[in-house]
């Protein structure tokens, strides 16, 4: 990775530590070079992780699509642990990370490699139909949002594509459990195999339709409500 991109990553507001960032960049490079398909991020925030995806996409001649409503997650609202008062728009009194994101991307010279979509992840997923080489889930951390992101975007992953989930904490003492439940669900679907674990970042690879059907069948047998993915419905 270029040194100036690394410096921009470290200077940007955000929550991802360096070791996880390097693992995300490595996964993005693998997916971008191997499949040549767009990389999708849910949870742009101020662009810290987007930079790493963009650097990998640029080197492989593809793009990043990053989705965020830019109003912040639950835990980023006033009075909550991860609130940053600097990110409140004085005109509306609401969080607005979009201007910070744009500055981050501009400073790193990566604007041309990113398509920023301002919207709610499930709504965007419903209208998105292009196959993806990587899906990075780092949006809302409630069960409703994390599972909505998984259901909306993972069916669009191409075979061999990578599903990356942030903030996976098996021990509740370390953090919220919604991303961990999504990770468990992905593994139990039979559609994914684990590629790497770095801190709270998990990288999974999507297998063939055969492995998926076998996994879904086993899960149904065990009484799970998992959906069979890749049926073209987008869910
Ligand atoms: C943890 S932050 C993302 C951090 C970023 N990936 C980084 O590493 O710097 C989560 C982001 O997800 C966004 N978000 C939460 N729920 C969302 C939803 N349903 N649709 C779109 N964006 C959402 C929030 O606005 C927030 O900016």
UniProtKB/TrEMBL annotation:
SUPFAM superfamilies: S-adenosyl-L-methionine-dependent methyltransferases
InterPro entries registered for this protein in UniProt: SAM-dependent_MTases_sf (IPR029063)
One Gene Ontology molecular-function label: methyltransferase activity
Domain of life: Bacteria
Keywords of this entry: Methyltransferase, Transferase
Biased composition (Low complexity): 213-227
Gene3D superfamilies according to UniProt: Vaccinia Virus protein VP39
Record carries keyword Lipid biosynthesis: no
Gene Ontology CC entries for this record: plasma membrane
PANTHER family according to UniProt: RHAMNOSYL O-METHYLTRANSFERASE
Name assigned to this protein: Methyltransferase domain-containing protein
Species of provenance: Actinacidiphila yanglinensis
Lineage, highest ranks first: Bacteria, Bacillati, Actinomycetota, Actinomycetes, Kitasatosporales
